[in-house]
Structure formats: C-alpha cells, structure tokens
Amino acid sequence: MICPCSGMPPGTAYDDCCRPALDGESWPTTAEALMRSRYTAFVRGNEDHLFRTWHAKTRPDDVGVDDATTWLGLEIVSTTGGGFDDVTGTVHFRARFRDHLGDHVLEENSSFVRRAGRWMYLEALES
C-alpha cells in the first residue's frame, strides 16, 4: 500500500514511510516528515499520533478525528527550515478532503518547533 502522504519519495510504501511514526517506533526527523505523518494520522484516524506530535502549549483537549471526513491528497507547497539541524520550521501545504458539504482544500502554513530533540506541530500561521 502506498503511503497516504504521497511519500518521500513519491510512491513510497506506507510501511517504509509513515507507519513507523504512527506506530511509535520512530520519530520524524524533519518538520516536513512530521507534517506528512500527521496528515497520514488524519487519514487513518490515529488520534494518538496527533496527540503525541502536537506541542502541549497549543494542543486542544480533544484532538479527535472526524470520521465523516475523507482525506484525498496532500501537496507540500514549500518548507522553510525544519531540517536536521534546525530548531524551528514551517511547512506550507494543501490537503484535499471531502465532507458532507463536498470537496475542499485546506491550505495552511504550519509552524513546527523541535522540543527535547523531537519535532512538534505548534500552530497554523496567519497568512
């Protein structure tokens, strides 16, 4: 099965891409890899991964996944920082999804910080 995040590189199998992060076997090493794993967590309904990877300062009490939403694809538009030696980074992405109102695109510039050596999602930045 191809990974829902579109893979790094594209077409990468789920077992070789996001599954180890979602199963808690490893931690994404870049902000982009964390973004991809979080998208995959939404696709697969993995609330534990979303909770673990959301910075405690900004994490809501309920990180629940809406079962009525079908995620259709992820496009990484750009990244700033977020590499192996960085402590902050941003990922600009577009995620296509379908709900009871139709098809939509969620476009966001997400802010990430490295905390205790691990990348964490911090917040959506204002456009």
Automatic annotation (TrEMBL):
<dbReference type="InterPro" id="IPR032710">
    <property type="entry name" value="NTF2-like_dom_sf"/>
</dbReference>
<dbReference type="InterPro" id="IPR048469">
    <property type="entry name" value="YchJ-like_M"/>
</dbReference>
<protein>
    <submittedName>
        <fullName>UPF0225 protein</fullName>
    </submittedName>
</protein>
<feature type="domain" description="YchJ-like middle NTF2-like">
    <location>
        <begin position="30"/>
        <end position="123"/>
    </location>
</feature>
<dbReference type="Pfam" id="PF17775">
    <property type="entry name" value="YchJ_M-like"/>
</dbReference>
